[in-house]
Amino acid sequence: MKPTPPKAVTPSEPEVSLPIPTRPVAWWPPVVLALVGFLLYVNTFNHGYALDDIAAISQNLFVKAGLKGIPDLLRTEFWHFSNISLGYYRPLSLITFAIEHEFAGSNSGLNHQINTILYAIIGLVLGMLLQKWFVQPAKQTADGLTTEGSQPNRTGQIITALLIGLIFIAHPVHTEIVANIKGRDEILSFLFISLMLLFHWRYLETNRWGWIKPDARLAAGAVVSLIGGLLGGSLVWGIIGKDSVSLPNQIEAGVNLLEIFRIAAAGVLGSLLVTAGLSAQYSKKVGKQELWWNNPELNAKLTGVALTTVAAVIGAVFMASTRGIPEITTGKAIWIGLGAATGSLLVTSWLGLACASLYFAFLSKESSIVSIAFIPAAQYFFARRNIWRSLLSLWPFLIVAALFFYQKLQMIGTLSGKPPVDWANYPYAIEGTQIRSTFKFFAYYLKLLFLPHPLVYDYSYNVIPSSKGTQTMLVVTGLILMLGLIYLTIKGFFRRTVWGFALFWFFVAMAPGLGFIWMRGGILAERFLFAAVLGFAIVVVWGLQQLFAKIPAFSATQSDASGAATPRPVLAQYAPLIALLTVVLGLYSFKTVTRNEDWKNNFVLFNSALPYSPSSCQVQRHVANEWIEKGLKDRSKADSIANATNAAVVKLTDNQKRADMVKKAQVLIDTNVAAANKHGRWALDHLKEATQIYPGFGEAYFSMAYVFQKIIPNRDSAVYYYKQTIRAANAYAPAYNNLGVIYQNEGGADRRKLELASYYYNKSIEVNPAYIDGRNNHAALKRATGIDVKVLPQQIIDSY
User: Fold this and answer.
1) Average pLDDT over residues 585-613
2) Which of 93, 153, 290, 401 could potentially form a cystine with 184 if both were Cys, beta carbons 3.0 to 4.6 Å apart?
3) Burial class, 432, CB count within 10 angstroms (exposed 0-12 / middle 13-18 / buried 19+)
4) Confidence (pTM)
5) Which residues pair with 566 in a beta bridge?
6) What parts of the sequence cross the membrane (predicted)?
7) Which residues pair with 567 in a beta bridge?
């Protein structure tokens, strides 16, 4: 009788324990990515402010206060001075703007240069991170560390990582972020996410508490510890230092940050002294020079953390008491010491650096919360760790997330804000088509990844019409694409494939953008693709590699004269891939550089969008406002000529010379007035188009009123359109203020009109307490006349 053979057992992949094998990093690919990223945006250095730069920098009084405004920036929403509550707590980019303003004033060129440098640093970090993922690890042998596989394999893997990085860096969709100064929040967010992933990978490779050793790294560690402590201490002061948000005219009351740095530095010094003492004791115990955190015993490590923290607190309290600053109580000094200790301890550990990076990513943009998913994913796909152990490693990052959102709630009082009912920016919520629009926008986003043309800065109402009627096919297409890619993501996840990770990255990175549509009914924006481009780049390079591998002429092996298979030279193997992607990268780079020019200033940017987004109510209004600016300049020139002529004519005694001067001046005045009227009419044409697209567009009516108030004088039309603005957008403070100006100018001896002026000034302050023009005008009128009216009968309001 034939025996039954044993059943075949499918071998399971062994669990990878820590530390994982170290993966070498070649220095030149990160440098190439950094240089390419820098050179692509050099032509933005002479650009001015555009779009949201004005609200984030020029009109942000806390930013303009420089270092003294930082505590207020830590306690207010991103759009605080725009009088809207979107629940955005993103102080880090605003803090960098404040620092730049402190030392360089309003310098858009410097702001653009720093954006470009930060983008280049992203290239540097990404170049290292991609090699950690795609280049095979080193293997321990009797002779030491050697690269797993052959050198040609390693070279090919480096080329793969470089090509992925180049597609990401050169992709034109990033222009909205890098060429727009306000986009720094997205740049910083992605930079710190990349650093988080890189530092965490180093932790996986070392499985050590700290990265510092008693060698040359000790001095570097002390410097980094000091920097971390200063950041930690000053950050805590920004949060707890003031009892309430100061008004713009109280900014000067802030404590000098230099004093906070001194207190925090004293805390760090105390912790470093304790570290040195503990390390000396531990070195004597083990018989070799070691730092205390290298002690394998957990209790010893926890004791070290506790003692260094106490030392930092004592140092901070001691320094605060010697400085005699009344604003800094002992309790606040303790908090500064805790912040200094936390900052210095975090930056001396790979895991701590990863957690600190995540925290700064949160401070840049709270949507960075989705990046936590990349930590277990990278371990699962590239380190081949068990999914459950990968998930368990998230606990310190979840603590950081909880602390950040608690801080956000304490600072601004909300986690979600109150998005306005706004057809221009949240049309799909009003229409109730958020879900359908999400699928349709998904198709649009995929199209922009593969074909980034045309690129426009605005997709507000009604660029992409409602997802009803003829738009149904696009919705179905987007739904099919989304479901298909989700299926492939799940399939690739269980197979641990490169394309599975790429699709996973893409969907996680797209979650905030798609959620903005699904949950808030917001509009499409190119900035939501910033991080998702990396997933796209991985899929493209992987897909082309698979395609060329199936072509015999480009396969990994070739037959020699005897017919035996031999490895094909790496460059020959990758030549077609490099050639094709060189063409693609050339086109991407050309598009990026040319698109940068559109971001030179508002006039160029807005007009560049007009041919592609004529149905956008915002684009029409923005273009109109630029013509209004030109009209105002023309009017100003005419007034200057008239004033200069009047002053000069008085000094002339010759009547003929007087007449000649007046005649010449009148020609110039008429020319400028005609130009102003022309620009005003062009503005009105665009504004009428905007109100036809969106009949309830209050800001468009405001601009129409402004034309009639300042450029083409017509008092009744100005009043009519300002009141139309209030009917459409009753929280728009400038409309109330400008009505007040009109009535005050007409007032004279008419007390009723002065009362109307006071009423409208008060209304502007009521709807926006931070509106400075309304405050100043109200104060001046009250000082001059004593009139302060907050309530008027509707009959009186309507009769004027």
Assistant:
1) 96
2) 93
3) exposed
4) 0.89
5) 558
6) 25-42, 116-135, 155-175, 187-204, 216-240, 260-282, 302-321, 333-361, 390-407, 472-490, 496-517, 529-551, 571-590
7) 557
